[in-house]
Design a protein that fits this description.
The chain is an alpha/beta fold. It has a single domain, classed as Uracil-DNA glycosylase-like domain (Uracil-DNA Glycosylase, subunit E). Helix content is 48%, strand content 11%. The protein contains ten helices and six strands; from the N terminus they run αααββααβαβααββαα. The chain has a six-stranded mixed beta sheet with strand order 1-3-2-4-6-5. The chain is globular and about 40 Å long. The structure holds uracil. The site of uracil has 13 residues, from helix 5.
Length: 240
C-alpha cells in the first residue's frame, strides 16, 4: 500500500514537473552568450587540461573514508567556459554508479530547470561539494567537506563562472561559511571567494532539487524559478 502511494506520488510529481518547468522551455536553445571572460580555443584547451588533472586526482583520492566506500568518484562535468556553476551537496546512488553528477531524480529536475532557463546542461557546469557518495546518503560530515572543498575551489578558479548557484543548505553553508538556514540564504546574491586574491563571484543559493521533490508545492517551485530568473537577469540573458 505504502509502495503504491509512493509510486502515485512520483507519477503525480513527474506530471506536475513537466507542466511547471516544461511550460517555460523555449523551442530553440538560446546561445549562451560569452561572458566577461571571452575565451579562445587555446585558453579552453588549457582549462580542459587543468580540469582533467583535477578529475584524475579526485579519482585517486582517498583522503577521507568515503574513498573506500564509493563505486565511482563524481568530479563534476560541463563547459570549461560555463558562466553558471550549479553546486550540490554530494553524489547519491545513481551518481555513484555512473560517476556523473545529478543523474538521478533530483538531476532530472535540475535538467528541467536548466532547460526552463533556455539553456542546455552542456552550457553550464554541474558538481558537488563532496566528490564521493556518503553511505546511505547521510549528510556530509564537516571533516569530509573540509578535505574535499579544495578540489571544488580549484575547479571554480579554472572555470571562473560569473555565477555560482548553490543547491541546498549544505552547499550554500559550506561555500558561504555560515550556519544560516536555506530559508534565510536563498533568493539573493552573496559574494564567494575561491581563494586568496581571487575576485569575488556572485553566489545565489536556492532550494536543492531533492528538497523540491520532497516538498513539491507551487510556492517552492515558484521560489526556485524566481531565483533562476535573477540568475538570467544578472547574466543579461532573456527569461524564456
Ligand atoms: N544530489 C546532489 O547534491 N548531488 C548530486 O550529484 C545528486 C544529488
Amino acid at each position: 500500500m505504502a509502495k503504491e502511494t509512493d509510486i502515485n506520488k512520483v507519477i503525480h510529481q513527474h506530471v506536475e514537473m513537466e507542466q511547471f518547468f516544461t511550460g517555460f522551455t523555449v523551442k530553440s536553445k538560446l546561445k549562451m552568450a560569452e561572458g566577461k571572460h571571452q575565451t579562445n580555443d587555446s585558453s579552453t584547451a588549457e582549462k580542459v587540461k587543468e580540469l582533467e588533472k583535477i578529475t584524475e586526482e579526485i579519482r585517486q583520492c582517498c583522503q577521507c573514508g568515503l574513498g573506500a566506500s564509493r563505486t565511482n568518484a563524481v568530479p563534476g562535468e560541463g563547459s570549461p567556459n560555463a558562466r553558471i556553476m550549479f553546486i550540490g551537496e554530494a553524489p547519491g546512488a545513481d551518481e555513484d554508479a555512473q560517476g556523473r553528477p545529478f543523474v538521478g531524480r533530483a538531476g532530472q529536475l535540475l535538467d528541467k530547470i536548466i532547460a526552463a532557463m533556455g539553456l542546455a546542461r552542456s552550457d553550464v557546469w554541474i558538481g558537488n561539494i563532496l566528490k564521493c557518495r556518503p553511505p546511505e546518503n547521510r549528510d556530509p560530515r564537516p571533516e569530509e567537506m573540509i578535505s574535499c572543498l579544495p578540489f571544488l575551489q580549484r575547479q571554480i578558479e579554472i572555470i571562473k563562472p560569473e555565477i555560482i548557484v548553490a543547491l541546498g543548505a549544505h552547499a550554500a553553508r559550506m561555500l558561504l561559511n555560515t550556519n544560516k538556514s536555506i530559508g534565510q540564504l536563498r533568493g539573493y546574491f552573496e559574494e564567494y571567494y575561491a581563494g586568496i586574491g581571487s575576485s569575488p563571484i556572485k553566489l545565489l543559493a536556492t532550494y536543492h532539487p531533492a528538497y523540491l521533490l520532497r516538498n513539491y508545492s507551487l510556492e517552492n517551485r515558484k521560489a526556485v524559478w524566481e531565483d533562476m530568473k535573477k540568475v538570467l537577469a544578472e547574466l543579461g540573458l532573456p527569461v524564456p
